[in-house]
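Tutorial, part two.
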Amino acid sequence: MSEIGSQSAARPVPAPGAAGAESAAEAWDLVTVPVRQGLEAVDILRRAGAPAVGPVVHDGTCDTLGFLVPPGTAAAWDVPGSACTRTSGRGLRLPELPDLPEPDGGAPRPAGWLLPPGDTDPVTDPAVLRRALGEAARLIEAADGCR
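Running the prediction step on this input gives:
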């Protein structure tokens, strides 16, 4: 995901050091995972009851989910099957809270929020996300092994 959301309502996220960029909601890295593992991880995080999950975005084809995590997470991210992109808010655009129309015909669906900002913590704690992704991978492996 090199750019999230292509709709005209997207807003650029300021670079670190810019006015207002100190907010965790504006400076972040992005952990992307396959959608199945990501949905399991979201369920695990939300069942934990703690405010442990931040905004989560899906790509237009719903192949991947992206978790916003604190800036600097990418430097030490090593979870197999996932990627962490160092952004610090640069180069990615976040759509405003989505009001996404259905695409016409065969047009690809735009990226959008699974968990929008404002309904969640500003970012997901990377240690908590790492544990949830590991648990999700084990659940998926167990489920697939029962076939």
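Strands lie at 11-12, 29-34, 56-58, 64-69, 83-85, 93-94, 112-115. In part three we will examine how such features are distributed along the chain.
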